[in-house]
Amino acid sequence: MPLVNTKQMFEDAYRNHYAVGAFNVDSIAMIQALLAAAEDVASPVIISVSKGSRAFMHPGNIKEAIECVSKDITVPFALHLDHGDSFALCKDCIDEGFTSVMMDCGDDVSFDERVRLTKEVADYAHDHGAAVEGELGELGGEQGGSGSGGYSDPDAVAEFVTRSGVDSLAISVGTCHGMRKHVRLEFGLLEEMMRLLPDFPFVLHGSSTINNEFLDDFNAYGGDIHGAVGVPEEQLRKIVRLGVCKVNIGTDFRVAYVSALRKSLALNPSRFEPRTFLAPAQKAIYELARHKMADVFDSKDHKIFH
Length: 306
Ligand code: G3H
Ligand code: ZN
Hints:
Strand order of the largest sheet: 1-2-3-4-5-6-7-8
Low-confidence stretches: 143-149
Number of strands: 8
Strand content: 5-15%
Shape: globular
CATH class: Alpha Beta
Bound molecules: glyceraldehyde-3-phosphate, zinc ion
């Protein structure tokens, strides 16, 4: 099982001008679909598990469960805690075999306190072979923050990286979490951060495009989500070309899965085998992940690090 630390991934991504996709999962079956997509395009990938998903998926055994389903996988993958909100949670995940954790201190923490909290996690992670993603700037939206998607200050970013010891940093250049992004991406800000911290891996959160095709099915078969706005894929491609090393996809992945599930439930009223409904959902996220890796993040054919 090629479970790796994200540090190695990002070095290769930066050097070879691609980004690694981090996809939010809720089950081992979703992980199987994600790993199958990565394997089929020979791409590295990050399995991203939030606090809530970890609680749902049985904390303590996630790495072992992945080991069981990844025996034939040859691409490198990382197991990452997304939006960890305390030292205790990050420590538990590292102890359980996660190779990367994100320390998200929230919006109401002073700069010095944010450095202190993040450094505590970074020190523990580095002593145990894991990598740490910090965050600075308001990520916002439905997963935390105000939803406005504030912007990171490049000078503060440079100071934060130096003082906290993080291996990568989630910055805000205009995206936010969830269904209504109303994005105005500030590419110049990103370029300024990269000038101050050359070779350093930056992470883009809130990167779903919100595919209308999936939302149409979602609503046609009983769902009720309207007015969604995402980040156009052309803008994601530009972010990747500029050198962002990790792009987070949560909403798109979830919507693809649930839309396909809604549709197959509605179209097969007399069936009752769970696989009848779950297989199309698996296929939908397989195809979405494959498309993002091959056509947007340019990580196809990068399973061997150079
Ligand atoms: O941490 C997860 C991501 O930032 C998800 O953002 O829901 O817009 O894809 P998204
Ligand atoms: Zn996020």
